[in-house]
TrEMBL record:
Pfam families: HATPase_c, HisKA. This is histidine kinase. The chain crosses the membrane at residues 9-34, 160-182. It comes from the Bacteria. InterPro entries: HATPase_C_sf (IPR036890), HATPase_dom (IPR003594), His_kinase_dom (IPR005467), HisK_dim/P_dom (IPR003661), HisK_dim/P_sf (IPR036097), TCS_sensor_his_kinase (IPR050428). Its EC number is 2.7.13.3. One of its GO terms (cellular component) is plasma membrane. Residues 203-415 form the Histidine kinase domain.
Length: 415
């Protein structure tokens, strides 16, 4: 359990940092991309307003309005662009390629005709050399299309993205390594508190056994002198009940102290049949029915005594809370693909419709709110079952269908 807390701490902290990095880097890249696109759009608009050229005749006030007061007019001459003009019949009547040298005239004509035929006023096209943003303007029966090499403008955004990814991944890896190194120290108070709690339960249990033994001996002596009475019988029942509670608490504490069970391949079907047969007479004597469907020769990776204890806990719980005249069912059947096998132990329980199934595996939880002693138990068995299933790397759950409560334990079968 402590290792799971440690791994969860590392996992959640890493996920939190990942979200922060993604948000931060994504925001920077997003802002950079938006500004680059705005810059491309502004340059294209200025080109169209000046017949596809950037020269000394450009309206300086308009340039500053679009790029901001700190923008230098000389910066406009850094862009690589070209333009193509068509008449109303779709014939090319002009071309300006004086501000770009990497694109031949034939390619410029081809790109211009492609955009003219598409009818799109704004967009981008790719050639062998680079990617170009374009914008068209129809005026006086002529259509002018200006193309701007956007690779230079987008290069800074791409560099920010690459650097951000490298720094983000490096930071995430380093942070995770640091977390792994210090996580033991971080959760040390939890480890100590959990250890002290288990030690307290174990030590208190052993200390309580001594006075209980004395009380039981004194009660037996009293019965030898005066014979059995209502009071001595009640004393004996309560002493036995308290002894079972202490034994269960000690068993649960010891189970949590064991860091790892000796798991091996076990004959699960055979063990389940053995446990079911031991409860058969008890269930039938209490005027209840037992329905069994156990597939043979199913093996799982677990611990033999622990798996037997798991079966006994589920069967005992099903018999204890089964309605009078109801049915206890045991099913152990693999799925069609033989990827998992599920142990389903159910019992009819008419009052279980509004039960809080999320609390069934908590210690001392009992669905009987009145804590009626007619239902013998302390709410520890299912908590022990959950611990065992977790140690076997399985999954346990509970569901309610057609006035029947089912406890489902899923394993991976061993072929």
């Amino acid at each position: 359990m402590i290792q799971k807390i440690r791994y969860r701490f590392i996992y959640m902290s890493t996920i939190a940092l990942f979200i922060v990095l993604v948000t931060l880097i994504g925001s920077i890249v997003g802002v950079s991309y938006y500004r680059a696109k705005q810059q491309i759009n502004n340059v294209l608009i200025i080109l169209l307003q000046n017949n596809g050229k950037i020269n000394s005749q450009i309206n300086t006030q308009n340039v500053r309005k679009r790029f901001g007061p700190t923008f230098n007019q000389e910066s406009l001459y850094q862009y690589r662009y070209f333009s193509v003009t068509f008449n109303s019949k779709g014939e090319q009547i002009a071309m300006d390629n004086s501000h770009i040298v990497s694109v031949p005239s034939r390619t410029i004509s081809s790109l211009g005709r492609q955009v003219f035929k598409s009818g799109q006023k704004i967009g981008s096209v790719r050639s062998v050399v680079s990617s170009y943003a374009y914008k068209s303007l129809k005026k006086n029966g002529k259509t002018t299309i200006v193309f701007l090499d956007q690779s230079v403008i987008m290069e800074s955004t791409n560099n920010i993205m690459k650097i951000g990814l490298i720094l983000g991944m490096t930071s995430l890896v380093l942070f995770t390594l640091i977390l792994i190194a210090v996580s033991r120290r971080v959760i040390r108070p939890i480890v100590l508190a959990d250890k002290r709690q288990r030690e307290f339960v174990t030590n208190a249990g052993h200390e309580l056994k001594t006075p209980l033994s004395i009380i039981k001996a004194n009660n037996e002596l009293q019965e030898m002198i005066t014979g059995k009475t209502e009071w001595t019988t009640s004393n004996d029942q309560q002493v036995n009940r308290l002894t079972r509670l202490i034994n269960n608490l000690i068993s649960l504490a010891r189970m949590e102290e064991e860091q790892q069970l000796n798991l091996s391949v076990i004959e699960a079907s055979e063990i389940l049949e053995r446990a079911t047969n031991s409860f058969k007479s008890v269930i039938t004597q209490e005027n209840k029915k037992l329905s069994v469907n156990i597939s043979s020769d199913i093996r799982v990776f677990a611990e033999e005594n622990g798996f037997l204890e798991l079966c006994n806990i589920l069967l005992d719980n099903a018999n204890k809370y089964c309605d009078d005249g109801g049915t206890v069912s045991v099913t152990w059947v693999p799925d069609k693909k033989l990827k998992k096998v599920t142990l389903m132990v159910g019992n009819t329980y008419a009052k279980g419709k509004n039960s809080d199934y999320n609390k069934f595996f908590e210690r001392f939880y009992r669905d009987d709110k009145s804590r009626n002693s007619a239902k013998k138990g302390f709410g520890i068995g299912l908590s022990m079952a959950a611990r065992l299933v977790d140690a076997f790397n399985g999954k346990i759950g509970v569901s309610y269908q057609k006035e029947t409560i089912y406890f489902n334990v899923t394993f991976k079968p061993v072929r």
